[in-house]
Amino acid sequence: MEEYILIFRHEDGTKVASPEQMQIWMKQTMDWIGGIAAQNKFVMGNGLPFADARVVRHNGVVTNGPFGEIKETIGGYIIVKAKSVDEAAEFAKGCPVLQGEGNSVEVRKIAKGDGIH
Questions:
Q1: DSSP letter string over 40-74?
Q2: Which residues, listed in sequence order, are joined to residue 104 by a DSSP beta bridge?
Q3: How far is residue 81 from each of residues 23, 40, 70, 95, 112, measured CA to CA in Å?
Q4: What pTM was computed for the model?
């Protein structure tokens, strides 16, 4: 069994959901993760809020951000255990973030001491 990271990408970082919509989305997300955990395939996950964020660039330049005015933002991630990238992608298909037009879930294998692929 390998570990895969599912990265939640939001196409338009300027859109802000209402508190009611956020509550609905969080319940859907917890239910989705609960389904993966019930299969003993959930490892961990976190949201990635924009508050207190910095971007470090070449030559040590540090700026505040990332901010919502950029085209695409990363809202969070989970790590799952799966037999293959295809199984991990099946988990990703159920992610509530996909309800947003243009949003996506990137699925990547996590390298574990066997080099970067």
A1: T-EEEEEE--STT-EEE-GGG-EEE---TTSS-EE
A2: 9
A3: 27, 8, 31, 16, 13
A4: 0.82
7-17 pLDDT tens trace: 998 876 666 67
The correct answer on CATH 3.30.200.20 for the domain covering 2-109 is no
* CB proximity list for 101: less than 8 A, separation 6 or greater: 11
Among candidates 30, 39, 22, 26, which has minimal Cα distance to 87?
39
Residue 110's CB is within 10 A of a number of other CB atoms, namely 11
Distance separating alpha carbons of residues 97 and 71, to the nearest angstrom: 16
* Domain chopping of the chain, boundaries: 2-109
Burial 32-48 (b: 16+ CB within 10 A, else e): bbeebeeeebbeebeee
Cis peptide before 49 (omega within 30 of 0): no
83 vs 106: CA distance, rounded Å: 17
Other C-beta atoms lying within 10 Å of the C-beta of residue 63: 11
